[in-house]
Structures are given as structure tokens and as C-alpha cells.
Amino acid sequence: MAGNAAEIKNFAFSPATPKVKAGTTVTWTNQVTDAHTVTSAGSGGPLHSAALATPAAYSHQFTQPGTHAYLCTIHPFMTTTVEVTR
Questions:
Q1: Can you give the pTM of this predicted structure?
Q2: Which residues of the chain have pLDDT under 50?
Q3: Is 44 left (phi over 0), alpha (psi -120 to 50) or beta?
Q4: Whose CA is closest to 7, among 63, 74, 80?
Q5: Closest CA to 66 of 48, 36, 46, 37
Q6: Cα–Cα distances in Å, from 4 out to 1, 23, 55, 77?
Q7: What's the helix, strand, coil split of the chain in %, to 5?
Q8: Is 70 in contact with 47 (CB distance < 8 Å)?
């Protein structure tokens, strides 16, 4: 994952499954005209962006190892995970 940057384009998150080390901040940038969110799947997850218009961005620092599932609440078919290692 280059520079810890992720994109939202073509109704998908890219890279599809980011892999980062604990302590890394990931920034998602919306590259398209449709609004999207970056939201943890299930309750209690750490990701809670507002609707991102173009070219808005959302950042989150992952402090705990694990697999974090997330989706776009506007387009719930857009799902993926972030894998965080030590």
C-alpha cells in the first residue's frame, strides 16, 4: 500500500484489502462524484466517516492488530477489510 493512501473509485475501495502495521494512519480519498463513507461493519468499530464528496478524505490511525471489516453505508455492497499487524 503506497503511502498508506487508499482510494474510493468505481464503487470499490482500492487497495481491496489494505495491509498495514499497528500505528499506521490510513487515508481514504473519494475519487468519484458519488458520495461514499468508510464505516466499520457491525457495531462498535473504529471507522465512522461522514459522507465523502469528491475529493474529500477520511483518515484513521489503526492502533490494534486485527482484521477490521468496513463498508460504504450508502452503497452497502462495497465491503472489504483492513489487516493490521504488529
A1: 0.92
A2: 1-2
A3: left
A4: 80
A5: 46
A6: 6, 11, 17, 23
A7: 5, 50, 50
A8: yes
Q: Which domains does the chain have, with CATH numbers?
A: 2-85 (2.60.40.420)
Q: Are strands 24-30 and 12-14 parallel, antiparallel or unpaired?
A: unpaired
The string of pLDDT tens digits covering residues 45-67 is: 999 999 999 999 999 999 999 99
> Quick one: 33 exposed, middle or buried, by C-beta within 10 A (0-12, 13-18, 19+)?
exposed
What would the grid cell of residue 45 be? 468499530
Q: Residue type for 22, please?
A: A
Identify the pLDDT of residue 3: 58
